[in-house]
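Minutes, methods subgroup
Present: GH (chair), OT, SY

1. OT presented the first of two proteins processed in the latest run. Sequence and structure tokens recorded below as shown on screen.
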Amino acid sequence: MADTVPDDAISETLPESSPETSPDAAPLPPNAADVVAGLAAVRHQIAQAAEDAERDPATVALVAVSKTIPAAGILPALAAGQRLFGENYVQESKAKWPALRERYPDVELHLVGPLQSNKAREAVELFDVLHGLDRLSLAAALAKEIARVGRAPKLLIQVNTGDEPQKGGVAPAALDTLLSACRETHGLTIHGLMCIPPADAPPSPHFALLARIAERHSLPIVSMGMSADYPAAIQMGATHVRVGTAIFGARPRKG
């Protein structure tokens, strides 16, 4: 959604979809050995892709996307040393992460899904990085809650690189306007950009576009690449890749 839309009226009227509202869809915890093996394989692929691109593998951060995965299924990844995790739903995250963080206080929690403005306070309180800033109304809500709570998660602007009307994210042509308003009107520090390329298009041109935009604005974080395409994202300069199913296995289909 581009920043030329004055408010997020459409998305705000929709309830946040979450597995918490559909108990029958809750998955069983993945097998611990499978999680550890999947995590190791992804780490190896990240290192290989980075080396192929003549990059230091340490410059690529793995965000393990644990949406819909119960706490018991996340524990094997935590025990294996993984500390960056991504979630899509605020309510689901509130239900499982406080207890996990008591055991692993050095976890960095990323909200990688869309954020409704009425969830801004909870998101600011819970998450360390927010990937889905894409409109002025959300920027205003986040600025208000950051000032109120006194806690400032890192903020990434989501760019809709394919200009897909059904997908969140600001249009590339409108990014400069949104970025300026975030900084100058709302006093927000923007740390980077995020994108999700169209499912039916080669991802590399979209990754290259996002990397170019980030470089032009001197933004250090470039969040792009998921289970199916993260090696290509690394080739194009991703600093953060968001990988879920390759670690935790296929998620159950929604009924």
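2. SY then presented the second protein from the same run.
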Amino acid sequence: MTDSALSRYERLDALPFIAPTGKVGVVGTWGSLKAVLDHRQLLNLLVRRDIKARYKDSALGVLWTLINPIVQLGVYYVVMGQILGAARGIENFAIYVFSGLTIFGLLSEALTGTTTSILANAGLVKKVYVPREVFPLASMGSALFTFSVQVVVLLVGCFVLASPPQLSGLLYFFPSVALIVLYALAMGILFSALNVYLRDVQYLVQILLTLSVWAAPIVYGWTMVRDVFATHNLPNWLLEVYTNNPLTLAVLGFHRAFWTSGTAEDYPSHLGMRMVIAFAIGLVLLWICQRVFARLQGNFAQEL
């Protein structure tokens, strides 16, 4: 063995041992976050890979992220709004439903991608050590890219339909996105770990997302739900549970940001405060889900 090789081994031997995973607990949470930050370049590469792989061998490539929402907006305006008459019940119906579906699309794509992220990267998980959290985060980054394109289409649609958003309403855009990202990431991290052990989880998530479209005021108004509760004398606390659902709050926030035909009566009172409280609860939920993920990730390679 050469002298250079010996000196290199001596230097390596002198380095302190750093465990690949942090201690489970609060300290472990910060350790996991630091590990992800140390691998941010890998995270960036994974996000780019996911975006490119989605449109691989496609003639138009990434342009499909622009074409799909344009077609959707056109269908909502012509078919549902004009032909089926949905616009008679909700003014400027195309912007109303498309804004709700845009924020729901972020939840749907993020939750679907994060749930299957560990399985989709089984080769990397089994061969090399990287913080396992980078895989759900990469799926979230890919979903945010698609979402950003849809927001551009939504903005252009608002101006084309002579309904430009107001600055005061646009302030609700950021907390709405933050709520969806937070809760989708929390549940996605948990589901991605559970899906390694029980593959039925990914199919259960699809069913939940299908039901969620109707569990939030996307194609109907929040006032319709409020009136139904009042007409049938249903308990008010049940309406509060429905209203304070993070998805409902995010959809209402997006309506407030882009749907200028709405009035104060179309939204629950103290919408901003409700969103702040939901965000605080989401932070706790994210920490809990990440701790469960840290407990389960030890056997990922064996299960895969």
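Chair's summary of item 2: The CA atoms of residues 23 and 175 lie 32 Å apart.
Next meeting: continue with the remaining queue.
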